[in-house]
């Protein structure tokens, strides 16, 4: 365990300032009738203050579980999560309550993440009421008005109900609700994947502007690489519960080293006829089940550059160039392809 | 009549409406569209643009009530679908026009093995013995890249991508003349989507079936389609061959769509997107339905719907900015005639 | 009233309900029955217990619109007073079942695991006994009387409510807005009261309406068997029971109480079905 710890400490953060969020040896297993499901398996990541970390992977790779463990919506099976140097895993009820004011989440589905019986005003004010932030109605409602302005919701919508609003406006409510308690750290769990392209762009712009104004720290979870590219500082790629590659966003797009990252990048449908139809890497097969995963590299079964050692020996995450971490025995640039 | 013969599908001035609690929704409003044999057309638009309604209208599957086809005509292989009896429509559905739905999880029957589901389709539309149908079903499995031995397995034993392969096999089992694929890869992961798109590309060459690919994703359409139609608020705003449309989008809405997609080759911090929202389908604005959001809108835009104009050969745009350009050249020909080129 | 804000769910439900003619008919009938029950002493032409043996077995006439029974009591008056008993038993029994069964179901659904297992197995045992038999057993054990009848019918209906509420809670616990509430730091009590219960009100209200009808039927059946309301107090089931010996010669004695039961049950079922359609979010178009 010791080497992983040290790996976690110096990983990825170029400045000397301590990271805002850090995970060490983080594991989350779910028990299923067929055996333990390895949703998150020994993940060490850091997120610097003010940084946006993009977390990318396909369904079942554990990205949403990781996001939920990081803000203690789920308790980890093993390992620690630090916020500002404090391990939140051992927090009791009261500490957890004050932690909720510092770390918030925006959910994927703008339809099921809002209680259909509450009005916009009630939805946004709920966290303020739970934490009794203001002594009276007047201040609470003033704060709600301000939040609505911040996320670009017209005041006249305050008495509307979610079912009257489109997906984009609903997601703005979700963002306002997450901002209400003035958090530092926000987990964005696929915040735009349920939205149409135009609305998606509007929400991405909103998240970008908010960060500019309030210096939030984001963990941006998505399956869509094209979405994270322009909003993230660094990007983590996960596959079956493991981090397989972590690099600066430009580095990852220009110099992807893991065969899976390369395939993922090449699978993005580009809206251009001239380059859309050539040179695509098509992976074989499906993502295997995270229940009782294979012993060696988890990508072994689908990897175009696999060799015998990969089936037995799981590669560790190592720094292959400054701030570029990779878990692969045969990276692309060393002739793996 | 000539057009009807060369086109496998010819939709003229189609109007579909739904009666809802909040009023009359004009889901499709004066839609003109035609499809040549073997052509793959991408029908692109956002949620509520009327893409799926158009598909259901072609299949004659608009649920009534609340919906109804309020006007227009749909010619399939030169014959008016609206005039056909329920019996004839049933024969066409699945046999001559097949459809692939978005969600492979719900479009398969969980209690029938996949080969039975493919064979069922064949038995419904062709005079074959049970044994022949099963044999054909296994062949189809091979064609869509599944091992024929897996035929007796049940849908829950397959992953999402494999289920979508089965759905495609069912759709193509009777060699339909027209295939309508409604967001066939939207529910799938990126790497699986790439596999399915690759498969559809191969099948397109194999069967040469005329296809309408409904998608919100300009990237997916770019991979498969020969021509593209951009739909907005129940109308087609722009239609052209894929090359021309992707290289040179003319309608402000199309341009906005392209700008909203994060460009993988450029570094931008903010995206250029279209302000505002699509109009309320119960209260469509007068004139051009995109005018309220359009940066180029002028007074003329809110008076009367802009005509489809041939901006250059084969590239049609419904925007009043174009009327000075191509409208005169085309003369007083009927609007729908122009749309079919 | 926040509830009747023009765009609230409640308002939309009412708008949809108004379009369902049968449901409105049911609502009107139930409204009328409730008024009849409340104002029975003013509406009834005679006292329900006054015997008049001279005018026994009179067929309907101007004096006695629905005739008289074997003791010469006015049947119309007895049916009017009977509405009081039937509605009281039906509503109270369902209330007992809803509160106790609903609480058990909500606890089972929200906490899950072992608690869920224990509660629901007990409910399964109760459900495996035919409800009318269960009610008969309880009524026999408690003895006759209005309150005991209500309790017996209520307990018999309890497991159904536990199941309905548990199912509703389970479907809501899985929603993202419950997770969002946890994320805000809300307590269990806050989540149950503010998020879960309001969202399961639809199935509970629908189930209650339909169950009132069944409770009235069960109460009538128990009274018919002599386990319910004791004479001379009028109860529709009891009236049927008393008249059954005369059904060949004086059919009207059974027809009118029977009609009263039938109309009430039908009205409640129309209303219940209408509410179900109106409250179902899938019906939102």
Q: Could you walk me through the main structural features you see in this protein, from its secondary elements to its overall organization?
A:
The complex is a heterotrimer of chains A (about 325), B (about 350) and C (about 280). Chain A has one domain: P-loop containing nucleotide triphosphate hydrolases (Rossmann fold, 3-Layer(aba) Sandwich), CATH 3.40.50.300. Chain A has an 8-stranded mixed beta sheet with strand order 7-8-9-4-10-11-13-12. Chain A is of the alpha/beta class and about 325 residues long. Chain A has 12 helices and 13 strands. In chain B, about 35% of the residues lie in helices and about 25% in strands. In chain B, the strands form 2 sheets. Chain B has an 8-stranded mixed beta sheet with strand order 6-7-8-3-9-10-12-11, sandwiched between helices. A 4-stranded antiparallel beta sheet of chain B has the order 2-1-4-5. Chain B is globular and about 65 Å long. Chain C contains 11 helices and no strands. With about 280 residues, chain C is an all-alpha fold.
Keywords:
heterotrimer, A: about 325 residues, alpha/beta, Rossmann fold, 5-stranded antiparallel sheet, disordered N terminus, C: about 280 residues, mainly alpha, MetI-like fold, 11 helices, about 75% helix, elongated
- Tell the overall outline of chain B: globular
Largest sheet of chain C, if any? Answer: none
Structural class estimated from helices and strands of chain C: mainly alpha
What count of domains describes the coordinates of chain C?
A: 1
Order of helices and strands of chain C: HHHHHHHHHHH
Mean pLDDT of chain B: 85
String of helices and strands of chain B: HEEEHEEHEHHHEHEHEEHHEEHH
Number of helices of chain C: 11
Distance between the termini of chain C: 25 Å
What structural class results from the helix and strand content of chain B?
Answer: alpha/beta
CATH superfamily of chain C: MetI-like
What Rg of chain C is obtained from the alpha carbons, in whole angstroms? 22 Å
Q: What portion of the residues of chain B fall into strands of 2 or more residues?
A: 15-25%
How much of the sequence lies in strands of chain C comes to under 5%
Which second-level CATH architecture of chain C applies?
Orthogonal Bundle
What is the spatial order of strands in the main beta sheet of chain B?
A: 6-7-8-3-9-10-12-11
* Spans where pLDDT lies below 50 across 5 or more residues of chain B: 1-5, 325-341
Oligomer: heterotrimer
The DSSP helix count of chain B reads 12
CATH domain topology of chain C = MetI-like fold
Instruction: Write down how many β-strands of chain C occur, each being a DSSP E stretch of 2 or more residues.
Output: 0
């Amino acid at each position: 365990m010791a080497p992983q710890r040290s790996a976690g400490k110096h990983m990825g953060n170029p400045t000397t300032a301590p990271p805002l969020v850090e995970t060490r040896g983080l594991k989350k297993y779910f028990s299923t009738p067929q055996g333990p499901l390895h949703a998150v398996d020994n993940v060490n990541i850091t997120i610097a203050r003010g940084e946006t970390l993009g977390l990318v992977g396909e369904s079942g790779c554990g990205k949403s579980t990781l996001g939920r463990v990081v803000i203690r919506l789920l308790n980890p099976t093993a390992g620690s999560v630090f916020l500002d140097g404090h391990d939140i895993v051992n927090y009791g009820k009261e500490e957890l309550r004050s932690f909720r004011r510092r770390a918030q989440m925006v959910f994927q589905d703008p339809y099921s993440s809002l209680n259909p019986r509450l009005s916009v005003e009630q939805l946004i004010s709920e966290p303020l009421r739970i934490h009794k932030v203001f002594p009276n109605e007047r201040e609470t409602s003033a704060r709600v008005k301000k939040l609505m302005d911040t996320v670009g919701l017209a005041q006249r919508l305050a008495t509307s109900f979610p079912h009257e609003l489109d997906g984009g406006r609903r997601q703005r409510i979700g963002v306002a609700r997450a901002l209400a308690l003035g958090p530092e750290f926000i987990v964005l769990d696929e915040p735009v994947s349920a939205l149409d392209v135009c609305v998606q762009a509007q929400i991405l712009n909103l998240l970008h502007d908010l960060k500019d104004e309030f210096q939030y720290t984001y963990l941006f979870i998505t399956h869509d690489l094209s979405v994270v590219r322009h909003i993230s500082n660094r990007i983590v790629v996960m596959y079956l519960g493991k981090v397989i590659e972590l690099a600066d966003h430009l580095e990852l797009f220009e110099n992807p080293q893991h065969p899976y990252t390369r395939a993922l990048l090449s699978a993005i449908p580009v809206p251009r006829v001239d380059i859309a139809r050539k040179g695509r890497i098509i992976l074989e097969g499906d993502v295997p089940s995270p229940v009782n995963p294979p012993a060696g590299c988890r990508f072994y079964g689908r990897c175009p550059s696999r060799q015998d050692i990969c089936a037995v020996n799981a590669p560790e995450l190592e720094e292959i160039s400054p701030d570029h971490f990779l878990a692969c025995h045969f990276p692309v640039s060393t002739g793996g392809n | 009549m000539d057009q009807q013969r060369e086109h496998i599908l010819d939709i003229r001035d189609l109007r579909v409406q739904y009666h809802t609690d909040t009023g009359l929704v004009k889901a499709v409003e004066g839609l003109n569209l035609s499809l040549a044999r073997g052509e793959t057309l991408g029908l692109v638009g956002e949620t509520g643009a009327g893409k799926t309604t158009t598909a259901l209208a072609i299949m004659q599957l608009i649920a009534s009530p609340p919906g109804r086809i309020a006007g227009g005509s749909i010619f399939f292989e030169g014959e008016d679908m609206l005039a056909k009896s329920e019996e004839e429509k049933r024969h066409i559905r699945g046999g001559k026009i097949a459809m692939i739905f978005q969600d492979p999880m719900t479009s398969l029957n969980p209690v029938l093995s996949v080969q039975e589901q493919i064979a069922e389709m064949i038995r419904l539309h062709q005079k074959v013995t049970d044994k022949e149908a099963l044999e054909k079903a296994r062949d189809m499995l091979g064609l869509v890249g599944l091992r024929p031995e897996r035929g007796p397995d049940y849908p829950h034993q397959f992953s999402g991508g494999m289920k979508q392969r089965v759905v495609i096999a069912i759709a193509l089992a009777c060699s339909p003349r027209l295939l309508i694929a409604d967001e066939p890869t939207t529910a799938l992961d990126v790497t699986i989507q790439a596999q399915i798109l690759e498969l559809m590309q191969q099948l397109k060459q194999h069967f040469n079936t005329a296809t309408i690919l409904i998608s919100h994703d300009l990237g997916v359409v770019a991979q498969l389609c020969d021509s593209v139609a951009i739909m907005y608020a129940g109308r087609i705003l722009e239609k052209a061959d894929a090359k021309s449309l992707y290289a040179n989008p003319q309608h402000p809405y199309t341009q906005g769509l392209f700008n909203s997609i994060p460009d993988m080759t450029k570094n931008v911090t903010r995206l250029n997107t279209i302000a505002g929202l699509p109009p309320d389908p119960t209260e469509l604005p007068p004139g051009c339905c995109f005018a309220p959001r359009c940066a180029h809108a002028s007074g003329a835009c809110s008076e009367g719907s802009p005509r489809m104009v041939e901006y250059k050969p084969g590239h049609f745009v419904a925007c009043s900015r174009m009327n000075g350009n191509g409208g005169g050249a085309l003369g007083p020909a009927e609007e729908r005639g122009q749309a079919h080129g | 009233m926040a509830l009747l804000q023009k765009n609230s769910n409640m308002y939309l439900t009412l708008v949809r309900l108004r379009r369902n003619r049968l449901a409105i008919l049911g609502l009107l009938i139930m409204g009328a029955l409730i008024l009849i029950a409340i104002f029975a002493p003013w509406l009834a032409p005679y006292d329900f217990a006054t015997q008049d043996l001279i005018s026994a077995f009179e067929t309907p006439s101007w004096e006695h619109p629905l005739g008289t029974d074997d003791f010469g009591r006015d049947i119309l008056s007895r049916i009017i007073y009977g509405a009081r008993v039937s509605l009281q038993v039906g509503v109270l029994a369902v209330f007992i079942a809803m509160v106790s069964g609903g609480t058990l179901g909500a606890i089972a659904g929200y906490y899950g695991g072992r608690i869920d297992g224990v509660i629901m197995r007990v409910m399964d045992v109760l459900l495996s006994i035919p409800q009318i038999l269960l009610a008969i057993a309880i009524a026999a054990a408690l003895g006759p009387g209005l309150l005991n009848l209500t309790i017996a019918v209520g307990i018999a209906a309890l497991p159904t409510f536990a199941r309905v509420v548990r199912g509703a809670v389970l479907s809501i616990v899985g929603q993202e807005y419950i997770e969002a509430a946890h994320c805000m730091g809300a307590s269990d009590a806050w989540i149950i009261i503010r998020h879960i219960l309001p969202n399961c009100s639809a199935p509970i209200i629908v189930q209650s309406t339909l169950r009132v009808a069944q409770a009235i039927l069960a109460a009538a059946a128990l009274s018919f068997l002599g386990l319910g309301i004791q004479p001379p107090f009028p109860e529709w089931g009891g009236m049927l029971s008393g008249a059954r010996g005369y059904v060949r010669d004086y059919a009207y004695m059974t027809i009118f109480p029977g009609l009263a039961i039938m109309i009430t049950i039908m009205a409640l079922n129309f209303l219940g079905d209408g509410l179900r359609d109106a409250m179902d979010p899938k019906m939102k178009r």
